[in-house]
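Quick start: read one record
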Amino acid sequence: MTDPDNVVSVRDLRKTYGAVTGLDGVTFDIRRGETFALLGPNGAGKSTTIEILEGYRDRTSGEASVLGVDPQHGGIDWKARLGIVLQSTGESGNVTVLEQLTHFAGYYRNPRPVGEVMEAVGLTGKAKTRIGNLSGGQRRRVDVALGIIGRPELLFLDEPTTGFDPQARRQFWGLIDGLKADGTSILLTTHYLDEAAHLADRAAVINGGLIVDIGRVGELGGADARIPVVRWRERGALREERTTEPAALVARLHAEHGGEPDGLEVIRPSLEDIYLDLVGAERIGSDPLDAASPDTDTTSPEATRA
């Protein structure tokens, strides 16, 4: 639990709510400088895990270390080393970007210069604009600016691009890539698998309070999950076969049928296919925090702590 190369270490993390089990033995590490994605359906255990790591919710049992500190006992100095970007902050729209960032910078001993932060998130031209007059994408950039102004060693990003259009998402990814290049460690939750594939070094898939797979995003599910499927119709019946040599099978089918069989197709499993196989349907819905809403839990500390 004290490996200096890990900013987060979790062992057999458990959380129960009465008779309901939210987390059922979660174990993973996040390395220094790494972007780590926590993936899973609503109700899988993401929110509970994150709130425990942020120090806003106590665990039932297990071990957790964040920046070398048990988050259950983290003090003000420890919290100042974290950056947290929630799904929705509820910040006042009546102040300007400059006023808001200047105010928050005052909470930290060694904040980033406000001008530098505005430039980093692409808001220099909006410094004197009231936050309430910004677009959704620009307000999300304010959220990130507030999360990084204290020079965090670890940044929590909770569904950072929900509601973004494709162009805004791509711009936001560039911002996060820049933070990563600066050495910031990042814990990301997202429902967008392409986002996880672009931003994350590694990912864990959580379902029913359990980690069902962990590794590089392109390796989730293992090699067998990526074996292509050849599908065709024969005598009116749908047939399919998984094979590591789809071209050879297609050639054999051509020879056997005297041409291309009806409905012939070669299907290579996508990341979404593999993810859906991993999470299934039978385990969804164990976590009261995640299950409350597909967007955010307005009754949890996560919705109010900003």
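The radius of gyration is 23 Å.
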